[in-house]
Amino acid sequence: MQGSKATGGNTAKSGNAVSPSANSTMAELLSSGYQIKAAVPNGGKFVVFMQKDQSAYACEFSSLTDTRCGSLN
User: Fold this and answer.
1) H-helix or E-strand containing 52?
2) Are 49 and 39 a contacting pair, CB within 8 Å?
3) I want to staple 25 with a disulfide (CB 3.0 to 4.6 A). Which of 9, 13, 40, 65 is the partner?
4) What is the pTM of this model?
5) What is the band of 19 on the pLDDT scale with cuts at 50, 70, 90?
6) What is the rounded CA–CA span in Å between residue 71 and residue 38?
7) pLDDT above 60 (res 26)
8) Cα-Cα-Cα-Cα dihedral of 4, 5, 8, 9, to 10°?
9) How far apart are CA 21 and CA 9, in angstroms?
10) DSSP state, 28?
């Protein structure tokens, strides 16, 4: 998974939805309709699992603004 910032997501312009890629920001995933399904502690970090239909992502939080999100499928 490649690092990304939770607050630095791409925004949709002209009403077009942002399509999530293998490495997306949490803001992109939320704007694309993904829902948070679970959050679990992992040492000093949290892992948040997001899902939309048959697609799933995991986002690892090392701080409030520093996250890494990657596709699970």
Assistant:
1) strand 45-52
2) yes
3) 9
4) 0.66
5) low
6) 15
7) yes
8) 50
9) 12
10) H
